[in-house]
Hints:
By secondary structure, the chain is mainly beta.
Amino acid sequence: MRKKIMRFLCLPLAPKTCLSILTALMLFFALPVLAFQQQDRTIKGKVTDDNKVPVPSVSVTIKGTNKSVTTDESGTFEIVVPAGKAVLQFSAVSFVTREVVVGNQTTINTTLTLQSKQLSDVVVVGYGKSSKRNITGSITSISNENFNQVVTGSPTQLLQGKVSGLNIARSGDPNKTPQVILRGPSTLREGPANEPFYVIDGVPGANLELVAPTDIVSIDVLKDASSTAIYGARAANGVIIITTRRAKQGQTMLSYNPYVAIETISKKIDMLSGDELRDYLSKNGQSLVSQYNDSGANTNWQDQVTRTGVSHNHNLAFNGSQGNTLYGASINYFDNQGIVKTTNLKRIVARGNIETKFFDDRLRLGFSATNSTAKHRDVDQGALFNNMLTYMPTVNVRRPDGSFTEDFSRGGYLNPVGIIANNLFDYKEENTLLNGLAEVKILKGLSYTLTISNQRTRLDSNVYNNVYSGQAVGANGKAHRSNYENNRQIIESYFNYDKTFGDHNIKLLGGYSWQQDRTGDGVGVYTQNYTNDLLAYNNLAVSNGLVVNSIRFDNNIISKLRLISYYARVNYQFKDRYLFQASLRKDGSSAFGRNNRWGYFPTVSAGWRITQESFMANQKIFDDLKLRAGYGVSGNSLGFDAFTAITRYDVSGKFYSNGLYLNGLLPVTNENPDLKWESTAMTNIGLDFAVLKNRITGSIDYYIKNTSDLIYGYQVPNTVYFSSTMTANVGKVKNTGIEVSITATPVQTKAFNWTTSLNASHNKNEVVSLSNGRFQAPDYYPLAYLGGKGQSGNWSQILKEGQPLGTFSLWHYMGKNDVGSSTFLTADGKTIASQPLTTDLMVAGNAQPKLLFGWNNTFSYKNFDLNFFLRGVTGNKILNNTLAQLNSPADSKNNNVPKFTLGEAFTDAFAYLTSDRFLEKGDYIRMDNATLGYSIKTKVKAISKLRVYVSGNNLFTITGYRGIDPEINIGGLTPGIDAKNFYPKTRSVIIGANIVF
């Protein structure tokens, strides 16, 4: 049989010859297999960290395959690799992934670096990343390991006190976001116009509600114009870039981070008890007014409307990779119970992302989706906070018949518990962000990126005042419901080019941006006269709409605003020693006048790494020394709508037509075709340094920030214009300051480590001018009309050239006279015991702090870690208008008064006047946070990290301020005023865990 086969295959060759040939062929085809088998070999090794400590649970993967092993407790591994150019990937949670080419090695020992160290060396800039050593601008990067451990739904509070020049004033209110000011206030407008511009995962202007603090990896704060101007017309107040957690190649991670917090009021205003009030009146020969104002009670109304808040947060995240595909998802649930009863924030944030590469990694496609749903419950804070202080403590909460003890005839004098019980304030905010990305590597060093995002925000408001409500007396139940939707669409399209030749490196960026905002799409309705309160605001149809004027609609405005931009940037390096950057952005916005819709925002900056010079080669002091200098212009278009620069008509009065009375329309704004951006020109000079083998690092920055073309409402004659005011560009504000940041590691051993960092900043603010050739301002603009007891026409601050924003204008208090009455100084130098005139108001200090500082310390010993953080403010003034208006001895027959009033003569009729007597120093030092953690070494293989911790927030405050808290907003036109509607600050204890599987 074999011979027949041989003849068939090998005819006309001889059988022996054919056998030889077949044998050779078989060997030829078998050689690759044999070679492969021969080259398969076992690789052994050990993985350690930077301190030579073994790292367990490291995933060791053969790149491009699913084959992997895990290091044991001693950090060792063993893996069989195939022939060819094998590459091993080493990845572990909290460490930077590392790749090692196997080559001919049989033993591979490698070191992994903690991510926090990498983050300190990499910062996120506009449309890309850069090494910190190559930055020529002023940028501060904070990693998640250095975030404040706080009960918050706002990412900005994670930075409080951590960044020099950044002032963050938080409220105890769970439904309010902190006020953020970077390098001093530089606009005359309120709201978003004062805040930095936010970028989340590359999406400019993304809503902060879309990101859960636990999902954040790092936050980069861009301070100077050379760093921010690539964002053009929105970057005058700085840029804050937030980067969230993403999967890494070869890494699979499941983490769960829960915490529970208990919050209490850190400080209350000391008001008189019922017995103290009765005793005070008795000593002054007085008695309570009104038949029910004395029931023998001692009601503490602040206690009645507040509580101990219990809050909790849960974050579950999963990140993984499969081949060239990275994917991740997370869900965060946050329940923040306010310390004022019924106030609450409940929010769920769900995120998902996927990214994959094609064509030998030349094409990268990514998609992410985020949804945030927040439910807010609030109270009428203005009414509640006023009444919880002034309502008589001599009465019980309820009468014997169960009704609240209150008298509606007094107008605004309402039972604090009734304010909460009889009124519902529910709000819901839903944000959805869809973002797609495509990146193509066209040539070596040249790539093109396209991102398209759509952000939808839906705002639902539901308010109901029931039949017993003192805020809707006689309405028999009153409801207001509104539903509005805003949409933002953004397209970013740009090229990046990176080329190194010899000692030269050049990076080029060129791009186009398109944005459209459509806001105010919705409706709002007021109605009243319900037969009962069972349905509250849930069915407006059951109200009695036949009553005249019982149904009203919101006067809402739908607007569409577009922003189109072109931008370019060049970075050049020579010998890693000389650094240069220049950028230019051209922005066009439909919000501004037709003559000035386009603006140009250029920057230039340079850096000199002095330690790279030959003359520094032998010195042993500096490990790094870099000098930076930059100048640039950025703009401020935040807070404008599409109708700012044009004539807008609105409902005004009624007219008679065909037997009907119809709403009339009249112009309410003047057109200004020359309206344009506010522009901020900033000069920044900085020095970065590292000494003692990088044990001490730091930076010093000096800046001059000039903001011109301030937008404000100026008086114009009605004979020429429809409205008496016109929104125009007039005026300049200047901020000058210095910032210092130092980080040191005083002790570093195998078992114990201590890292400390200090930051401090000083800023001087000045209103340079308020007039130009077209608009002439008066000597000053009066601001802050606080009112109260015959003071409705009085102002407490002024806007004046040569003075800072927040300049107080008050009567000068001269003490008490012989009969105990308050006396004041008049403009002509006389001392009077009566209420002065507005002409007697005098400049009395300002609200701008001279120094902000923060001091952070982290200790680690074996498995324990301890962190404590102090911060403070000095040099500013606070107007304690809360205390001023409460300090009315004669009113103690009708309203409660603070214990402060016990030192006042009952006959002092002017003790409450808003004077510099109540202008107090705002200095304070606060132990903001202390956290003790312990990392548990578990024998459960599924758990790679388990850390438990306990943290305390706002543990103590050293201050001479007599109000609730000296942490006051310094932004806007009227900063530094404490005026009754101040939600109490909280002190919290947090117990939590970090678990990684």
